[in-house]
From TrEMBL:
Superkingdom, taxonomy of origin: Eukaryota
Location in or out of the cell: Endoplasmic reticulum; Secreted
One GO-annotated biological process of the protein: response to oxidative stress
Protein name: PXDN protein
Family to which this protein belongs: Belongs to the peroxidase family. XPO subfamily.
Originating organism: Burhinus bistriatus
This protein's record includes keyword Heme: yes
PANTHER family cross-referenced by the UniProt entry: OXIDASE/PEROXIDASE (PTHR11475), PEROXIDASIN HOMOLOG (PTHR11475:SF75)
Binding sites annotated in the UniProt record for heme b: 921
Length: 1095
């Protein structure tokens, strides 16, 4: 019936059928009736197949069948369906003779013995490499009667793993595996069994089979992952056949495994994966939360397992509310935005995969929100000068409100001058007339804020003070010592080549405008006089009864303060503004920025004090920087040395290329910065007290503020104790414009540039600087040009006379510095190339305007061209550069331009100049790339940054500015990565010279922030409406890297101590921008002021 596929009925009863071929009817699935009764069926082991078939018919009910046994007589008449193997004495096969491994050569005959017994007699089947051999397909193969496999005329294809299987109706059995090894000549390994990807549950065992043949016989070894040897683990063994066996599988056993088969001829390998399936296990578990109504709450819930579990959330056993407020993040975190009172309840996180699930329950408590309500309010006060005053203010609310204070619109910060108690009371130490004004107490929480204000008046009694007798002698001594130190410095710097990085730093920051020099000198004399008076007063006291610093406002009578201001030169160098020439001021800018704002002519002008977002923080409330006294604790911890912060947190050898922007992003930022701010440095490199150089004495005597080198610093090996650093020059009386100076003000610093984006880096920030670079002889409104290159393109003119920072090495070149609108134009070659580009742009536009307007005189052409160049710079900055730096979030924070607002002061803030805008230092590559017309390196090669400082000869002698410009816009910039901040060219080799101590830009930035009284990072978080950070863990939203937070903790001890610059640099970037959240707040505030307050 093998050829019949459909057969419904078959009647074979009343015949003499004794035996049936096994499987005769098994394939006839359509059978309905089968009769085999009344036959001479011999019921032996050969008929068991029929018994199983009839049982199947009976169980399914789809067919009727009848068959009875005739023999043997003891079961005569029994239905075949009831017969069992035991009744028939059927016996499973058993092997009586096993085959053995065989080594053969070509053309021989091989015998694999296999004998087996059983009832009925077993059928012998041979397998090779787990596949059944067909004797019909290969005439060389023969199965002998006793089960022996004979292979004649052996070939290489015969080699492999052989196994004999004995099979009858009672079952089957296999012999051991044996190998036929074929030897004709040495043979490279070849796999007989490749390992296969295998899935296994945790706790079970798994085997990756692997075997190979070859001559000599290959040795099997295993590796895991990236070819690392297997771990020494008793759970892991290699079987005799080469398989990898792992007992009690763990999750970490998951991965890629490689089987190597090696002999003297070759080495081959094959890989497979063990995929460990595991029940979900929670790695991050949510905790019960209590939040205020309207807040956002996160329940983090993460789990691991294989397959990766899916996180599902329920509330009270039911589904979550289907609205936009409830969101399950990709990480598994449940986020509920704008929490409502009805969101309170029990939530369940479930982690589910095909293996199983796990659950965890948490509870959300929602408290109603309460806006701040004042418990105590301040009232107007009148106090005596020189006293300490406490102004009460406290508030309640839910969440607990944070109290901040503003004076005349500027936020007050913790310092030697001001202290805000935990309940919110403001203490003002050493009150002077400068402290008079309106104070506003602001209580703010996430629900809202409330404010209340008071007016503080200061009464100055007409009595003599302890310092009055010393005024005359102190002013004479101050003038003498300050002038001696300044003259010594000028002689040292300008009468010889620079001999150290300190000289380079001092030279390129030294003011070129004589008026700037005189104003800085006056500020130094004024402050030095007060210091000498205080020293005289304290020398006359037997004991300091208060145990505190002497009060400056109680030191000298107001009339004597005014005398000091007159004799020091402070009042003599106040500018008298004249904005009467409206024909000029309505059309053009002044070079010094005055008269831009006609209501406040000095706003944004050069040589004025930096503005502040927050009140300054000095140790004594007047002029001593934070950390100047190493033993003084701040919030229970000493401030770290800036150099230690640099080496621990900031310096990096590793650079990650920016995947979006080129190095030009950095270079435009530096060029722009040199249009906005330049702090006037101290005019002396020597201390006023005895004239010794600051780098040799390593003290903090004015104007020295040396950067001390920690004991384990690499610089110590060179014998260095400190790095050169001097304080910025102070403004006389903090920049007051009053003719009478009757109070002591906290130290403020001078911005030498205009605060507007007005191309002052091209034209200068004073009439004196502008005249130096103009070509007045031609009367064509041009800027002076220097030598003309072979390409026909001019370079900047050379500076004449000191400073001589570009002639630092007579072995390199005698070429002097270039002259441009900003004195830092030679700092590095990339910057110099941009200065050159804009000088050419001015002359190009001026030439075009003259052709269009031949009747214009030189001044008209100059000012019209200057107006266009300034507009170009503003357009590039606001339309092209800032969107890349700010991203979409930052540009929304900046807001759209709505026109000029005369009530906005465009002045550059101290925080911007000293910390925030120095973020550009993190974008600097360690090399300046120089590319030819094919964007290949020029013959002279690329330049390490430390070789590009003050090197104009490289532009003159090595191809001009074009290779540098191609390197700026043709090479990826440096990506801002919180763990890769300033490259070591800036922290270890800044202005490096042979056998000298190079400077560290990061340490200098931190030290400059302390010099300028910049408040700590925490105060600016509060200013920018970020959360108050009482622990380092509170910083995790803005500084996600736990290693960075741990370093900050080791360095500063308290988050209230962290300097602004390093904290801004390690914040994580807001997506789409190059800034962290606090830095974005500070920069958007400054650029909004620059834009909106520029007429």
């Amino acid at each position: 019936y093998m050829h019949i596929s459909v057969l419904f009925n078959r009647f074979l009863h009343n015949n003499r059928i004794a035996h049936l071929i096994p499987g005769t009817f098994s394939h006839l699935e359509s059978m309905k009736r089968l009769r085999l009764d009344s036959n001479a069926l011999h019921c032996d082991c050969e008929i068991l197949w029929l018994a199983e078939l009839l049982k199947t018919y009976a169980e399914s009910g789809n067919a009727q069948a009848a068959a009875t046994c005739e023999y043997p007589r003891r079961i005569q008449g029994r239905s075949v369906a009831t017969i069992t193997p035991e009744e028939l004495n059927c016996e499973r096969p058993r092997i009586t003779s096993e085959p053995q491994d065989v080594d053969v050569t070509s053309g021989n005959t091989v015998y694999f013995t296999c004998r087996a017994e059983g009832n009925p007699k077993p059928e012998i089947i041979w397998l090779r490499n787990n596949n059944e051999l067909s004797m019909k397909e290969d005439s060389r193969l023969n199965l002998l009667d006793d089960g022996t496999l004979m292979i004649q005329n052996t070939q290489e294809t015969d080699q492999g793993i052989y196994q004999c299987m004995a099979k009858n109706v009672a079952g089957e059995v296999k012999t051991q595996e044996v190998t036929l090894r074929y030897f004709e000549s040495p043979a490279r390994p070849s796999f007989v069994i490749h390992p296969q990807n295998t899935e296994v549950l945790v706790g079970e065992s798994v085997t990756l089979e692997c075997s190979a043949t070859g001559h000599p016989q290959p040795r099997i070894t295993w590796t895991k992952g990236d070819r690392t040897p297997l771990p020494s683990d008793p759970r892991v063994t290699i079987t005799p056949s080469g398989g990898l066996y792992i007992q009690n599988v763990k999750q970490e056993d998951s991965g890629e495994y490689t089987c190597f088969a090696t002999n003297s001829i070759d080495n081959i390998h094959a890989t497979a994966y063990i995929i460990v399936q595991a029940l979900p296990q929670f790695t991050v578990t949510p905790q019960d939360k209590t939040v205020i109504e309207g807040q956002t709450v996160d329940f983090p819930c993460e789990a691991q397992g294989y397959p990766q579990p899916v996180i599902a959330w329920t509330k009270g056993g039911g589904q979550l509310s289907v609205d936009r407020r409830h969101l399950v993040l990709s990480s598994g975190t449940l986020r509920i935005s704008r929490v409502a009172l009805h969101d309170q309840g029990q939530y369940e996180c479930q982690a589910v995969n095909i293996i199983g699930s796990q659950r965890i329950v948490v509870y959300l408590t929602v408290q109603p929100r309460v806006t701040p309500v004042f418990a105590s309010v301040p009232s107007d006060m009148t106090v005596e000068v020189g006293t300490n005053v406490q102004i009460p203010c406290s508030a309640q609310g839910e969440p607990e409100p944070v109290i901040t204070w503003n004076k005349d619109g500027v936020q007050v910060t913790e310092s030697g001058k001001f202290h805000v108690s935990p309940e919110g009371f403001l203490t003002i130490r050493d009150v002077g007339t400068a402290d008079e004004g309106r104070y506003e107490c602001v209580a703010r929480n996430t629900i809202g804020y409330s404010s209340v204000s008071m007016v503080l008046s200061v009464n100055v009694p007409n009595v003599s003070r302890n310092g009055d007798p010393f005024v005359q002698t102190s002013i004479v001594e101050a003038i003498a010592t300050v002038d001696r130190a300044i003259n010594s410095t000028r002689t040292h710097l300008f009468d010889s080549r620079p001999r150290s990085p300190n000289d380079l730093l001092a030279l390129f920051r030294y003011p070129r405008d004589p008026y700037t020099v005189e104003q800085a000198r006056a500020g130094e004399i004024f402050e030095r006089t007060l210091q000498l008076i205080q020293d005289h007063v304290q020398d006359g006291l037997m004991v300091d009864l208060n145990g505190t610093s002497y009060h400056y406002n109680d030191l000298v009578s107001p009339q004597y303060l005014n005398l000091i201001a007159n004799l020091s030169g402070c009042t003599a160098h106040r500018r008298v503004n004249n904005c009467s020439d409206m024909c000029f001021h309505q059309k053009y800018r002044t070079h010094d920025g005055t008269c831009n704002n006609l209501q406040h002519p000095m706003w944004g002008a050069s040589l004025t004090a930096f503005e502040r977002l927050l009140k300054s923080v000095y140790e004594n409330g007047f002029n001593l920087p934070r950390g100047i006294e190493p033993r003084r604790l701040s919030n229970g911890y000493a401030l770290p040395m800036p150099r230690l912060v640099s080496t621990t947190l900031i310096g990096t050898e590793t650079i990650t290329p920016d995947d979006q922007y080129t190095h030009m992003l950095m270079q435009w930022g530096q060029f722009l910065d040199h249009d906005l701010d330049l702090t006037v440095a101290a005019l002396s490199e020597a201390r006023f007290s005895d004239g010794q150089h600051c780098s040799s004495v390593c003290t903090n005597d004015p104007p020295c503020f040396s950067i001390m080198i920690p004991p384990n610093d690499p610089r110590v090996r060179n014998g260095a104790r400190c790095m050169f650093f001097v304080r910025s020059s102070p403004v006389c009386g903090s920049g007051m414009t009053s003719l009478l100076m009757n109070s002591v003000y906290p130290r403020e610093q001078i911005n030498q540039l205009t605060s507007y984006i007005d191309a002052s880096n091209v034209y200068g920030s004073s009439d004196h600087e502008a005249l130096e670079i103009r070509d007045l002889a031609s009367q064509r409104g041009l800027l002076r040009q220097g030598i003309v290159q072979r390409s026909g393109k001019p370079l900047l003119p050379f500076a004449t006379g000191p400073p001589t920072e570009c002639m630092r090495d007579e072995n390199e070149s005698p070429i002097p510095c270039f002259l441009a609108g900003d004195q830092r134009s030679n700092e590095q070659l990339g910057l110099t190339s941009i200065h050159t580009l804009w000088f050419r742009e001015h002359n190009r536009i001026a030439t075009e305007l003259l052709q269009l307007n031949p009747h214009w005189d030189g001044d008209t052409i100059y000012h019209e061209t200057r107006k266009i160049v300034g507009a170009e710079m503003q357009h590039i900055t606001f339309s092209h550069w800032l969107p890349k730096i700010f991203g979409e979030v930052g540009m929304k924070m900046l807001g759209e331009y709505k026109g000029y607002d005369p009530s906005v002061n465009s002045g550059i803030t101290n925080e911007f100049a000293t910390a925030a805008f120095r973020f550009g230092h993190t974008l600097i590559n360690p090399f300046l790339y120089r590319l030819d017309e094919n964007f290949e390196p020029i013959p002279q090669g690329h330049l390490p940054l430390h070789k590009a400082f003050f090197s104009p000869f490289r532009i003159v002698n090595e191809g001009g500015i074009d290779p540098l410009l191609r390197g700026l816009f043709g090479v990826a910039g440096k990506m801002r990565v919180p763990s890769q901040l300033l490259n070591t060219e800036l922290t270890e080799r800044l202005f490096s010279m042979a056998r000298t101590v190079a400077l560290d830009l990061a340490a200098m930035n931190i030290q400059r922030g302390r010099d300028h009284g910049i408040p700590p990072y925490h105060d600016f978080r509060v200013y920018c409406n970020l959360s108050s950070a009482q622990t380092f863990e509170d910083l995790k939203n803005e500084i996600k890297n736990p290693e960075i937070r741990e370093k900050l903790s080791r360095l500063y001890g308290s988050p209230l101590n962290i300097d602004l610059f390093p904290a801004l640099m390690v914040e994580d970037l807001v997506p789409g921008s190059r800034l962290g959240p606090t830095l974005m707040c500070l920069l958007s505030t400054q650029f909004r002021r620059i834009r909106d307050g520029d007429r």
